[in-house]
Prior knowledge:
Helices cover about 5% and strands about 35% of the residues. It has a domain at about 35-80 and about 90-135: Sandwich (Immunoglobulin-like). The strands form two sheets. Strands 1-2-7-6 form a four-stranded antiparallel β-sheet, with no helix packed on it. It has about 140 residues and is mainly beta. About 10% of the residues are buried. It contains one helix and seven strands.
Amino acid sequence: MKNTLRKNRLGQYLPWSEFDALLEPLFRSGSPAGRRGFLVPASLWEEDSSYHVELDLPGVKRENVELTYDKGTLRIQIERVAPEQKREGWHEERLYGKAVREVTFSDNVDPGSIAAELRDGVLHVSIAKNPEAQPSQIEVK
């Protein structure tokens, strides 16, 4: 009987053993306990009177979020706690542990205005600009 499986043409350009080695860390199964830290996706934007930072934090509780502002740098430290019960899974992509994101601002922010809210797995932080630093319209005479 003739083999009816076709050879994957991608294999001509990339050796599969190397490709598998690249993907293996992404799809490694097993306990997440040995993993430390992870990347927290962020969005940053500026409006006329404020700056905004949003982080995706699914599964993170309020008590596991710490914000500090010091010398122009907003530091956001979070911890996603692994489930307590031991699970024998086939595949685990969720990452647990601590992560830190830092955003440095110019001197034109009002540290006393910093407000943070965690809702539906998204942390939103807003920081008002100092009134002196906000744009103003100048009348031409």
